[in-house]
Amino acid sequence: MGAQTSQKARLEAAVFSGSGWTSFVGDRRRLIKKLDFDCELHYLYGSRQAWLLPSLTQLNEESLANIFPVDVDVDLLSVRVLLARFQLQPEEIADCLLDLGLSPSDWDRQLTPTEHRALRHQFLNPGPVQDQVLAKAAAARHLLKTYLQDVGVLSGQPMGLIDLGTGATLFHALSALCANEKIRPPHGFYLGLRQGVKASRFGMPEVYLQDQRRNLGFTDAQGLVTMLETFCSADHGSVIGYRQVSKPSELGQVSRVEPIFTEPQNQRVLGWGYDVVRETIYAVADRLLLNPELLNPEATVCGACLDLFNVFWNHPTRTESIAWGSFPMEDGWGKEAVSIPLAMAYGWADVAKRHHRRHWWHGAALGQSAMPMQWAFWVRIRVEGQLQALKQQLQAEQKRRQEAIALAQSRSELAFHPSPPYRE
3-state DSSP helix/strand/coil percent for the chain, to nearest 5? Predict the structure, then answer.
C-alpha cells in the first residue's frame, strides 16, 4: 500500500490481517518514518479459521464460497478437516454423515468429489447441520466482535485492510462483520486477485501486482505468493479463535478477549532460522533510501522485482535450494494444518510423475538433486514440450478440417435450396 494511495482514500488506520505480517508491520513502521505519511499501523491476530465462521449469518452459495469452496482448497480434504472450520466434530453430526455413507472409518481420509458435494449439500439445506453451524457462528461472532472493538477496528474511522493473499477471503469476512454492526467496511489492499474470485456486495479490494480475473498486471508470477508467505511468516502459531479472559490490573480484574493460538510460538519456523530472515528485513528497511529529492518513493518496481524473483524461483543455487527449500510451509486451517518442506531432492520415481502440492518448489527440488537427476528432468521437459507442440499442431489441423467440412456442408445446402428470384 503506497502512501499516496492510502491518503487518497483518506485512511486514518491500516491493519494487517492474517498470520504472516508480524515482521512486515515492523518493517512498515520503520519505513513510515521516512515518508510523509500519517497513518496508524496495527497487526490483527486473525486467520480464515478465526474469521470466516463468525462472518456467517446465513448459509448459501455465496457465504460458503470461501469456507467450503467447490474447487480450490487444501491438499488433504477429509470430513474432520472440513468440519473443523465450523468448530464441529464428526461425532456431533454422526447420524447425518452415516446417511451420506460416511462411517467413522471414513472421517480422516480424502473425500471423493461426490462425497464432497453431498456433504456441502447438507450445509445448504435447512436442518440440524445448519442449526449447529449458525449457533456456533453466533457465539464466535460475539467474541470476534469484542476483540475487534478492543483493538479499535469497529470504531468507525476510515481504515485500510492489507492482506498478502489473492482470494479476498479475509476482506469479505471482515466487511461482512462490519456491515452487521452498521459500520463502513474497510478499504482493501491486496497483493493480487486470482482467477475465479467473485465480487461480493462489499466490492473488491485494490490490487498491487495482478488481477488474473481480468488478465491485468503481472499475471505470470508463479511461486510468488508461496515465497512471500515464507518471507512474512509469523513467529506465533495459527490463530484458531478467541476467548474471554480476566486479568488483574490497578483497577481490579479486567475482562478482555484475546486470540487463541495452535501454539504460543511457531517452533518449526523459528527452529528453521526465521529470526535471521526477520532481522535481514529490518536491516534493509533501516538502510533503504527514500529521499524524495533523489528518487520517487511511489514509483512502481513490480517488473524489476519480478525479474529478480523469477531468477531465484526458477534457478536457485544449491545453497539456496537447500536452505529455503527446507522451510516448513504450513498448509491447511488451524489445528488441521500440516507443515511440509517447500522442496526435497527428487528420486528416479519422480521423473515419471508430477507433484501436485499447492506449495511445491520445483526449482529448489531440482537444485537439491544429483546431476543425473537434473539431466533426466531436462530430457523430460524437452520431450513434454515437443509432445505439447505436436498436440497443438494436431488440434489446429483437426479444427481446420472441421471448418472445411462445415463450409462444404453449407455450400451443399445452398445448392439444394437456391434463393427465390427477386421481384419488384
Answer: 50, 15, 40
Query: Which residues have a Cβ under 8 Å from the Cβ of 113 and sit 6 or more positions away?
Result: none
pLDDT the model gives residue 407? 83
Are 372 and 237 a contacting pair, CB within 8 Å? no
Q: What is the pLDDT of residue 388?
A: 87
* Residue 207 φ/ψ, nearest 5 degrees: -115, 150
Nearest-5° angle of CA 283, CA 6, CA 277? 20
- Below-50 pLDDT ranges, the chain: 1, 3, 6-9
pLDDT tens by residue, 15-31: 766 555 555 565 666 77
Which helix (DSSP H) or strand (DSSP E) does residue 341 occupy?
strand 338-341
User: For residue 318, how many other CB atoms are within 10 A of its CB?
Assistant: 13
In SS3 terms, 238-260 reads as: CEEEEEEEEEEECCEEEEEEEEE
Question: Rounded to an integer, what distance in angstroms lies between the CA atom of residue 24 and that of residue 275?
Answer: 13
DSSP state, residue 393: H
Q: What's phi and psi for 243, nearest 5 deg?
A: -145, 150
Instruction: Give the sign of the dihedral formed by CA 305, CA 310, CA 313, CA 319.
Output: negative
**DSSP alpha helix (H) spans, 261-358:** 267-272, 274-287, 302-314, 318-325
